[in-house]
Design a protein that fits this description.
heterodimer; A: 1091 residues; mainly beta; 22-stranded antiparallel β-barrel; five-stranded mixed sheet; 43% strand; B: 635 residues; two-stranded antiparallel ribbon; 23 helices
Amino acid sequence: MNQIIDNMKKKLLPFILLWVVLLNSAIYLNVAYGNAMHSTETYFKNNPPNGNLERTENQIDLKQKKEIRGTVRDSADILPGVSVKVKGTAIGTTTDLSGKYILDVPNDNVVLVFSMVGYTSQEIAVKGKELIDVSLQPDDKNLDEVVVVGFGTQKRTDMVGSVTSINVGELKTPSSNLTNALAGRAAGVIAYQRSGEPGLDNADFFVRGVTTFGYKSSPLILIDGMELSTTDFARLQPDDIASFSIMKDATSTAVYGARGANGVILITTKQGAVGKAKLSFRLENSISTPTRDVELADPITYMKLSNEAILTRNPLGQVLYSEDKIASTADGANPIVYPANDWKDMIFKDYTMNQRANLSISGGGGVARYYVSGSYNKDNGILNVDQRNNFNNNIDLKSYTLRSNIDIDVTKSTHMIVRLSGNFDDYSGPVDGGAGMYRKVMASNPVLFPAYYPIDAPHQFVKHIMYGNYDQGKYINPYAELTKGYKDYSRSLMLAQVELKQDLSMLTEGLSFRTMVNTNRTSYFDVSRYYNPYLYTLAGYDRLTDTYNITNINEETATEYLGYSEGPKDISSTFYMESMLNYNRSFNKHNLSGLLVYIMRQNLTANAGDLQLSLPFRNLGISGRTTYSYDSRYYAEFNFGYNGSERFHESQRFGFFPSAGLAWSISNEKFFAPFKSTVTNLRLRATYGLVGNDAIGSPSDRFFYLSNVNMNDAGKSASFGNQVGSGPYSLNGVTISRYANEDITWETGYKKNAALELGLFDKLNIQAEYYTETRKNILMTRASIPVTMGLSAPIRANVGEAASKGTDISLDYQQSLSNGMWFSARGNFTYATNKYTVYEEPEYNEYYRSHIGSSIQQVYGYIAERLFIDDAEAANSPKQNFGEYGGGDIKYLDVNRDGQITEADQVPIGNPTVPEIVYGFGFSMGFKNFDFSAFFQGLANESFWIDAEATSPFAPYYSDAEKAANSSILNYTVQNQLLKAYADSHWSEDVRDVYALWPRLSSTINANNTQTSTWFMRNGSFLRLKQIELGYKLPQKILEKLHTSYLRVYVNASNLLTLSKFKLWDVEMGGNGLGYPIQKVFNIGLNVSFN
Amino acid sequence: MKHNSKVMKKSIISSVYLLTILSIVCSCKNYLDVVPDNVATIDNAFTMRTQAQKFLFTCYSYMPKDGDLADNPALVGGDEMWEIDTRGAYFNIAKGLQNVVSPYGDRWTALYRGIRDCNIFLENIDKVPDMEETEKRRWIAEVKFLKAYYHFYLVRMYGPIPIVKENLPINADVEAVKVTRDPVDSCFSYIAQLINEATESLPETIIDPTNEAGRITLPIALSFKAKVLVYAASPLFNGNTDQVALKNPDGTALFNPTSEKEKWNAAVSACKAAIDLCHRMGLKLYSYNPDFQQYALTDTIVTQLSIRNSVAEKWNSEIIWANTQTNTTALQQLMATWWDPLYLDGTVTRGELSPPLKIAELFYSQHGVPINEDKDWDYNGRYKLRTATDDDKLYIRKDYTSAYFNFDREPRYYADLGFDGGIYYGQGKYDDSKSSELFYLEAKFKQRNGFGKFNFLTVTGYYVKKLIHYQNVIGTGNNYSVTTYPWPLMRLSDLYLLYAEALNESAGPSEEAYDYLNLVRERAGLQSVQDSWSNYSINPSKYTTQEGLRAIIHQERLIELAFEANRFWDLRRWKEAANELNKPITSWDLSQETAEAYYRPVVVFSPTFGTKNYFWPIKDSNITANRNIVQNLGW
């Protein structure tokens, strides 16, 4: 197959030429045919036939042939683009820009069907009329009839590829982050949220799981054709969205060539419609509170177990807390001397309030239409603020969006759209951010010092807050960390887009040209302002008089004035251009469309930090699509993408990604007519094709074909000279961080998709899809290169292969009852699984170590049997090679029975870390002016691991990320807090519970117990009541009095209930449970429109 | 026809349209060539001298930073200094926690990278146009030396290793990269060959010490070769029958089970050549003789300073090779204790790394013989109490009660060790005529240098004084001024003792062997080996037999080079580790406040050392990646 593609690549230019020629000839033929028809008509008009011609199905009954004309409009204005069809045939046309149409109908008895997206179709019998003017009524229900696909739209009923479109109304959740609305809403999308911190709460989402191990596994996000980041997507207002499509299979994504393999999310924003200015706004106020909080042990238990942790490991060790201190703290003696802080309670509030507002105005006339909207979201954190500072150190994220979409008819055949939008985040929050505060609280000692000392007589002139600390002042006082200052950041996205559409029907009917130029700028910067807090420690305490002295620890470094530090300043600019030639024509029962699009894109980043990274990111491609359908029964589609990516060597740079699909609408067959009333829709679809992914390796691997050499690496410096310590002669050295490899190219996904659509009784719609994918050319590090080669960078090659398969099913049910009650229910289910089929790995002696056949997200670890009963058992068991261990430490299974526990005993454990099953289901119902809806969402087949190091009580824990980033927390003495669950259930010498939650305590991280093992593995499955909503729409009479056209008030709530076996924290956070918790939100809102 | 021509026209126009688009595509083919010329590649390193020098420095940068606890397993991986609970580093090796999953102190990856960079340098240096030929030859010689050094470092740790004479190409065949270990004799001869090649172009001395001190010179190369050949001749590598079973998958034996005397002969001549050159270059054993001397010091203190400064005075007259890639600032901070009673609250000084009692016991009596051999030294009464008199005032604080153990010991005992009641000369108090003002330590329970005060401080009752420069001063606040020095890799006294050892092993006791031993003893303030043993030992003829002299040389070496990360390797090389490293680590009874109770040895830890511990385990994943590499025995 690869060879074929290679050959095709070589012959690609001729191929495109051939394609163009074919398209041209098709156009030519059609033009010729169309003209021939016309000339025939003219001929017959001028020369009425006197004999009977043989009638074939496709021929027009020339005897009764008739021309109908008319104008289509809605309540406000003319309507261009309305489809006018003779019912039951393929004969039809569309209205021109002035809303007019001309149609030849076979006879007088036919019925014309006028239809357009967003309007109720209307059927009018001809019955002798020659002029039929129609006024269409708007209809919101049919919005999903037309689906936005790559570089165009397709009718839902004509689809061959696999595209899910989300009903925009469902995205209106009580959250300012659009990504949080994705989970469980669309079949084929895997989504979950790991944090609840404003600004950092983007959900992770994947289309049909993750079948790559490149750095980018999330789908390509295109908003109005423009590629944008997840955060830009997150800030999009649901009110502004016109359509939301998720493209999953090869035919729908192949046009994106080397970037479409992980699926594509395509969003278009609203356009204005002809009519009076329509103003609508939405106001919301919500209360958010953590779904579940981690519980910590009380300070007395903390001290007792801290002592136990030291003594159980070393009976001669020195404990940190004397019996006297523990007893005095328990008795509630002087709280300044015997502090017992609940840092969490002190730092965090129980709830916070957030506001959202959105306003849009749209309308327009014959020449131009507009849609202008603005929104304002305010999200607050759950941190407390100290009133003695005049700054707000709680998280306050304000996000503004302004959007203007203008449609202009330049000439009758030229149409221009200008879209301008800006999104701005203004953030103010604690210096460390919300997650940073959680980190510090979890790393602080509750009993060493109080948050601050009250002003006493010797310090009556002190103006600063006298924060508590201990020893050298390196301990974490979360209160000081929170109140010492604040951080501001600003983030903006400015987007300008102009689109020009030229109708080329003067060349040939159905031909149009479109070009779009788009540019955007994103920027981010932050600034922190903070004190170096004055830290005090207890210097002496006289128990008899209950008096104490405090003394300052850090006179030299503390400040009463604010200091300042600048964060990163990120700027990037993107330019994008696409030019497209579109052909769309139907004649008789044949529908033919063709599309040829040329795209180029460039992205530049300021402060990239490295020459190679600073070079522009570019993409270039040409894509095409041809669709053909016959009689609304048989459909065929062919797509291709021919893309280049600058990351690869010239010889590997361009890739060709073809795809093809077929569909059969069985329910439109004649033989199916008897069943049509029961089975309203029955359709089969199948596609096959190739899609690429060039986001492999890591983003810093810009050019695989070039070596990357750091000619000035301080890590490879050497120093000489006898002045050591006072300026020796030193030079930096040279490091190779990548070896050149000209053969590296993108991954290719070979995707198959089969789908069944079933509609029953016009009420229930079922779509079931089954897909498989083989991902080849996955970039892997060669495992067969021993380190004796001395290579300083991994050698990689496109050798990996993975296969994935899955199913997505969606169900829709709608029913209206006679008494004004309506009911609808929907559900969807996604199952996505994958496995390695080729994985380069060392020759393991143990079959189970091989990754082949395991999921890409499979974790390997040790099987924990239980805890050792005592030291003797530990000494007599197979040797465990991770440092000191004994009774109460985790006993691992010697899988290969070689008498010791080594890496060879690691087996695949648990489910993958990305859920294999995601589902959602819900219902809505309405009665008179009330409506009520509920939506459940869940996921399954996911495992996660409690982070044993991060939760290891009393341990000085720094995460690998913190060490790598040289984080400021490394300057602090970190002591992990004690989780209440661990305090309640751990192995101790008195209670030798070999199945306790936590092993034997230790004051440091015990490497034996923190290995990845089944001991800390947990089931990530859950089912939660994601959203529940009750609304009330004001009746028409009152609305009229208020001069409004629509007014609805509603209350809703999200994340109300969660069903899961895991109780330590919100299960959706996975192993990251000590971070900023996911929020439960109660919301009240108002939606008003004026016409 | 009219219609047709119209149609033709339209389709021509549309074709032109499409072809225009296509031509845009074609003209934009270069659109994706975003990389400008002259992006740095490895060739840039050899286009001119200044860049090539960076690559030379890169080759040096792989030298292990021996002054760094985390980079030198020999400092604390044995029994010379014992741990503080909270420090991990290589104490885990000493505690028997070495493992195959993630071996402590593993250097397999780092040093093979270093060797590859050396080879890249050697392959490319001839391309540099703007260099003098002599300088080019010198650089090549330095890099060859480093290549030898990195090979040696690996052999010392892992035993036989795969030799990398030339780099394998990046796209080498999978089978070709699966190298096997080379027999240990081949390893040593390849290392010696590399040094021989290097000696041809190395400078005899550094002409520009400000910029180049620490670069490889001829004396360094010859001394290192002497050390390499002594290792090759030592029992661990020469006729080690324990390792007979270690064979490559194809059956090649990696150790030669028969001991060969010729290896010692080769070592003798290598040592001699090195010593002769060092002498010719003016190197001599250091003795304290500063340009400016404020006080007329007693001989006692001068001897102590000669001993201390032979290591801690940078670039002194006996330093052959010091590693300028590392300095000792952090190590000195870690070892220094709170000798100054004025400043007890500093946290820069840590008072860690404590020599166990067996190390203190190793030092000779004042007569220069082992304390259990000295006729006049009451070995059995060594834990009895004794109060210091005026005679002892420069060693032990006058009127301070300590154990006999600390009395009447050789000068190196007092120069190298800090202990309860022991004088801590220098550090801001230099006038030894005012002995009552000199600093001294108080190391009983919760005393200023005693256990129980902080989380750190001694765990045995002893401190290392030897590596602390005598001018380091503790000041107010957190102030501790450190006079730092590059880590000495090879001192003349080391070379002398290697020579004496090689002479004795190749031909038994000889005058020349005694002479070099005595030079070292003389600087340490001791009488000659003949006099000391004849007059004071219960075994007066010990030095006249090969076995006796071997024991004497070994002990002399362990004392003279104490705390310089030699004991760890020497015990292994002599195959004495299985004996020494199975002895318990003992300390004084630190949680006692009275002298009576304090001066009782208690066991801190009982280490175990088996045959497998003579060599490092090869990391499991390195074997999984290349099954041709056999694991060391026992791992």
